[in-house]
Automatic annotation (TrEMBL):
It comes from Cohnella faecalis. The keyword Transport does not apply. Coiled coil: none annotated. This is Acyl-CoA dehydrogenase C-terminal domain-containing protein. GO terms for molecular function: acyl-CoA dehydrogenase activity; oxidoreductase activity, acting on paired donors, with incorporation or reduction of molecular oxygen, reduced flavin or flavoprotein as one donor, and incorporation of one atom of oxygen. One of its GO terms (biological process) is fatty acid beta-oxidation using acyl-CoA dehydrogenase. Residues 18-88 form the Acyl-CoA oxidase/dehydrogenase middle domain. PANTHER family: FLAVIN-DEPENDENT MONOOXYGENASE, OXYGENASE SUBUNIT HSAA, MEDIUM-CHAIN SPECIFIC ACYL-COA DEHYDROGENASE, MITOCHONDRIAL-RELATED. One of its GO terms (cellular component) is cytoplasm. InterPro entries: Acyl-CoA_dehydrogenase, Acyl-CoA_DH_C, Acyl-CoA_Oxase/DH_mid-dom, Acyl-CoA_Oxase/DH_mid-dom_sf, AcylCo_DH-like_C, AcylCoA_DH/oxidase_NM_dom_sf.
Length: 278
């Protein structure tokens, strides 16, 4: 699931309050997990107040159609397709409330970004480990390298070392951001605005760095492993496909702009941490 708050102009259902319940109509894209889920979580707009609300309804409720039309070249099994709502009833007790102990904005958006950060990191580290194993078991040294094993090739060593350093740096920042999120979550409503802003900026920075490092590792994978590794049977392109399509959800330029505005001018990053581009 993992839906985000919507921005003006994005696709979302409208809800009209009628006889003690909302009647939903509209479309929602990127409803991750719905083809295999029992329930659908969504944000919808109150047609009268324009307020954005969140609800959870059974997937098999009358009027809900799961189209299962996701065909991305990466993240193929996420089921991030379209759901349409045609006069769907959403009962009052199916509306989710903000956890007021987290303060006025809550921490759902930064928490979501933190989860994505670690997904990126996991893909990058997974790619590097797969490359390490392949180099030792299958790669052959280049004819002019002067070494007997690909694992001793000086240029492979340099590239592998560079990617390892990038990912370990990103991992350290991700751990720092997660620890900060734990601290402010524990503080709840006692968290200051400055602490909230610093947390959002730190999580955004970790999101940026893990995405960049993992994309670099996935993109340069075959420079380490060689031509014989670039087969459909090996499927090593999945690392790039998965991290590439996932990092497109949140535009890098906007994240960096938000970080820069906070670091240079003290402007708190907006929530969600980096916006949505789906």
């Amino acid at each position: 699931m993992g839906q985000y708050r919507q921005f003006a102009g994005s696709e979302q259902a409208d809800g009209s309050w009628e006889n003690g319940k909302y009647i939903l109509n509209g479309v929602k894209k990127f409803t991750t997990g719905t083809p295999d889920s029992d329930r659908v979580m969504l944000y919808f707009r109150d047609a009268n107040t324009s307020e954005t609300l969140q609800g959870v309804i059974p997937r098999d409720r009358a009027g809900v159609t799961v189209h299962d039309d996701w065909n991305g070249f990466g993240q193929r099994q996420t089921g991030s397709g379209t759901v349409t709502f045609d006069n769907v009833a959403l009962e009052e007790d199916e509306i989710l409330k903000e956890n007021e102990s987290y303060g006025k904005d809550g921490y759902s958006p930064p928490l979501t970004q933190s989860v994505l950060t670690n997904i990126y990191l996991g893909i990058g580290l997974g790619a590097l480990e797969a490359a390490r194993k392949y180099i030792h078991e299958h790669s052959l040294p280049y004819a002019l390298s002067g070494v007997e094993a690909a694992s001793r090739d000086p240029y492979i060593l340099r590239k592998y070392g560079e990617l390892w350093a990038e990912l370990k740096g990103a991992e350290s920042l991700a751990d720092q951001a997660s620890a900060q999120l734990d601290r402010v979550t524990a503080l709840g409503a006692r968290t200051s605005e400055e602490e909230r802003a610093e947390t959002a900026a730190l999580i955004t920075a970790a999101n940026v760095q893990t995405g960049k490092a993992s994309l670099d590792a996935a993109n340069r994978f075959f420079e380490l492993t060689g031509t014989r590794s670039a087969t459909t049977d090996n499927g090593f392109d999945r690392y790039w496909r998965n991290v590439r399509i996932h990092t497109l959800h949140n535009p890098l330029d906007y994240k960096l702009r938000n970080i820069g505005d906070w670091a240079l001018n003290g402007t708190p990053p907006p929530l969600p941490v980096a916006g949505v581009n789906t």
